[in-house]
Write a structure and sequence with these properties.
Layout: H1 6-31, H2 34-52, H3 56-69, H4 74-86, H5 90-101, H6 108-125, H7 128-141, H8 146-158, H9 162-176, H10 181-197, H11 201-214, H12 219-231, H13 235-248, H14 253-267, H15 270-283, H16 288-301, H17 303-316, H18 320-333, H19 337-354, E1 358-360, E2 366-367, E3 383-385
Antiparallel strand pairs: 1-2, 1-3
Helix pairs in contact: 1-2, 1-3, 1-4, 2-3, 3-4, 4-5, 4-6, 5-6, 6-7, 6-8, 7-8, 8-9, 9-10, 10-11, 10-12, 11-12, 12-13, 13-14, 14-15, 15-16, 16-17, 17-18, 18-19
Length: 392
């Protein structure tokens, strides 16, 4: 959960403190005199003055004084506790929120709010066991407590208690309607990895199955499934799993390609491997399947055929790694150096055209021409020439 700006709490305190000052001043006027009203009003406006003059410590003390005068200022005290936590005064926030939780006569909504604040205090201070207890109490008090469930998920992730993380992710989905399948699948994959490392193959397979149930397109589940089948000597099953990963998300092809090609080699299906690599060159713009197919062409049809194939591919998808492979093939073949240089010149020109010459050192925006103001983050003077393109 994103942290809220400290000044957010200052501005939240302004209307709360105003109301508190007015109520207290009114009560003071009824019980004592106009002198009390004047004194409280003065205190309130002194606090505002401290805020405007960026003296938060003095402002906090005055608003605390107002809160102490009227114990019913619940919202003001919750906001002060949040402000203490943001300023790193976690112990002070804990004491304040503990007192609020124990206050008699709170509504259910107020008790939920105080418990939530206290649990966040504990999390900030690293007392995860106490935070867990508070959030579980809060969920028991209010079954639809999504923020508490979110915090519990975070706690169980940090403690690597994947079963509890899964349970609370499902409860969160039920309470909010927000799909949690992708996150649950990641937790199931963590369990699958744990079981696989322990040699518990059946349990690992079951966790992978549950991951697919949660997210039918889970790339990670497919990768784990493939490795499980490789470990078990089931190369055909591993091929299916790895190919499924590449088809669901081609960006992960480089991660599964080495293991996939090893499986194809063990089952002796070179034609199947070539067909799959040819398919992937249509869907994946990277160089990995091209280089793999180049090696297969070289092994089956010779260096000249491999060099010709790679040169054609690199005209459409220039790559430094591809360029290095083309040089190796040209040297191995003893090819015409002039023709090779022409190929390399074309590839290099394409790389220069496609790559940015300038980059913003604040947000990473890449540009072909210089801008004094970054089009992305709007900062001035942050776009500079890349060293590779600097003229010296």
């Amino acid at each position: 959960m994103a942290f809220i700006s400290e000044w957010f709490w200052f501005f939240l305190l302004l209307p709360l403190a105003a109301v508190s000052g007015w109520v207290i001043g009114r009560r003071g006027g009824e019980r004592h005199s106009n002198t009390q009203v004047s004194r409280l009003s003065t205190t309130y406006f002194r606090g505002l003055n401290y805020l405007l003059n960026e003296q938060p410590d003095k402002a906090i003390e005055l608003f605390l004084h107002i809160a102490e005068l009227d114990k019913e200022t619940f919202e003001t005290q919750v906001a002060l506790g949040h402000l203490f936590r943001r300023r790193g005064e976690v112990d002070r926030a804990i004491r304040l929120h503990q007192a609020l939780v124990q206050r008699p006569g709170l509504s259910d909504q107020q008790r939920v709010q105080a418990l939530l604040a206290l649990g966040e205090d504990y999390m900030r201070s690293g007392l995860l066991d106490r935070a867990e207890t508070v959030f579980n109490d809060l969920v028991a008090l209010e079954m639809r407590a999504p923020l508490a469930l979110r915090h519990l998920i975070g706690i169980y992730q940090s403690e690597r208690e994947w079963g509890k993380a899964i349970e609370n992710a499902r409860r969160y989905e039920e309470a909010t309607g927000e799909p949690m399948g992708k996150l649950i699948a990641q937790f199931e994959c963590e369990l699958a990895e744990r079981h696989r490392s322990a040699g518990e193959v059946d349990a690992a397979r079951e966790a992978v199955r549950r991951a697919y149930e949660a997210d039918a397109n889970s790339v990670r589940a497919g990768m784990i499934e493939g490795r499980i089948e490789v470990d078990a000597g089931n190369d055909a099953a591993a091929i299916r799993a790895f190919e499924r990963v590449a088809r669901v998300d081609p960006d992960y092809l480089p991660e599964v390609l080495p293991g996939l090609l090893d499986c194809y080699a063990r089952v002796g299906d070179a034609s199947g491997a070539r067909a799959f690599l040819a398919e992937m060159t249509e869907h994946y713009r990277g160089i990995a399947p091209v280089l793999a197919l180049t090696r297969m062409v070289e092994a089956e049809d010779g260096v000249a055929a491999a060099r010709a194939y790679l040169a054609r591919q690199l005209k459409d998808r220039p790559s430094v790694r591809g360029e290095a492979a083309l040089i190796d093939l040209a040297l191995a073949e003893g090819a015409d150096p002039i023709a090779t240089l022409h190929d390399l010149k074309h590839i290099t020109d394409q790389l220069l055209v496609r790559n940015p010459s300038y980059r913003c050192n604040r947000c990473g925006f890449g540009a072909r021409s210089h801008h004094w103001q970054c089009p992305s983050c709007k900062e001035w003077g942050t776009i500079k020439p890349l060293l590779n393109y600097a003229v010296v």
